[in-house]
Amino acid sequence: MQNRIVPVAAIPVLLFLGVVPSVFGQVEISLIEETGWETSDEPYDRALISELNSEISRGTYRELNSIIVIKNGELLIESYFNGSSRDDIHNPRSVSKSVAGTMLGIAIREQQIQSTTQTLGDFFDLRQFDEFEESKAEVTLEQLMTMSSGFEAFDFNPESIGNEEYMYPTDNWVEWALNLPMADDREPGDEWFYFTGGVVVLGDILNRMLPGGLEASTHQHLFEPMGIENYQWQYTPQHVANTAGGLSMTPLDFAKFGQLYKDGGRWNGQQLVPESWINESLRVRYATTETDQSYGYLFWERSYAVGDEFHQTFYSSGNGGNKIFILTELPLVVVVTASAYGQSYGHQQVDEIMEKYILPAVVD
Predict the structure, then answer these.
(1) pLDDT category, 283, cuts 50, 70, 90?
(2) Are 286 and 300 in contact (CB under 8 A)?
(3) Does the pLDDT at position 21 exceed 70?
(4) Which superfamily, per CATH, for 96-247+267-299?
(5) Where are the domains of the chain?
(6) What is the pLDDT of residue 31?
């Protein structure tokens, strides 16, 4: 167990890297007791990270809240910005879709759900909904997770009748999604089109099939064993844990989720999620509509360049520039939380920060 010095007083940018200068006031704490993380003694380019912090302070990169870097399972970099702090929970929007995928893997292990090939027809009497088609009944859980369900829905097109913004004002999000027609120009499984409503439907299925419901089961099987206590769900109108997005946690706890996947579903020696599920989730399944980005089981995939080398990462992603990166071939997990909701620069600036600062600073 290692100790580190952290400041008592808040400053505009908090960078917890070893010992913080005494001008800010100090108190010695055990970081492992405070956060669940051991600290890393591995070297990195401190000048480059300092330059990044200066750029954030000057507003070159906007509305960032935190950057966490875990290397070899230990906390290497922990930075907070714009008034955020270690104990603040943060809304990462669609980052939390990945948690729904995790819970499906656990539900299959616990035999509450048979497999990813089960269909909507196994869980719903779809003839009671509008626009019934046989193909809708044959949509699989896997197709909901891979955004390939074939519904007439596309969140990235504001004119799509299945855009998520039309869902939120309704009094039943599941009914809204299942009332949508199927697309005329594609079949389930053909192509990727981002459909938040499909993940809401998946969450409803999990809530009905998991003993005690989705929220209680997630706490029992995932959060409690990982020591994640400071979190908050948003809910659907039926008070079901909202798998569309909005599960708020601290940045360090988001890093625990990323490290769980990095370690093949294990946490502190306990196999919380089947390793086979982790491998299936972090596998490219579809090209997306976004340049150089692919998709697995509710995880995105892309590569970042550092010099002449490209480094693959699977990642959770949410509106505003929120990310949990799991580097495939490097011992790294990177978390970025941000509040640039609805801003075009939200994701773009995180990509630039990864390629220009974070990865060059920490890659050996």
Answers:
(1) very high
(2) no
(3) no
(4) DD-peptidase/beta-lactamase superfamily (3.40.710.10)
(5) 1-90+322-364, 96-247+267-299
(6) 62
Q: Mean pLDDT score of the chain, rounded to an integer?
A: 92
Which residue do the tokens 């504001």 mark?
Answer: 158
Contacts of 335 (CB under 8 A, 6+ apart): 66, 67, 68, 70, 251, 254, 255, 258, 323, 324, 325
CA–CA gap between residue 333 and residue 258 (Å, rounded): 6
The residue type of 201 is V
Other C-beta atoms lying within 10 Å of the C-beta of residue 102: 23
188 within 8 A of 284, measured Cβ to Cβ: no
Residues 111-124 pLDDT 10s: 999 999 999 999 99
pLDDT tens digits for 64-86?
Answer: 999 999 999 999 999 999 999 99
Round to whole Å and give the CA distance between 284 and 314: 9
In angstroms, what CA-CA distances link 354 with 74, 309, 321, 325? 19, 14, 12, 10
DSSP 64-92: EEEEEEEETTEEEEEEEETT--TT--B--
**Separation CA 249–CA 295 (nearest Å):** 24
Smallest CA-to-CA distance from 174 within 103, 237, 232 is with 237
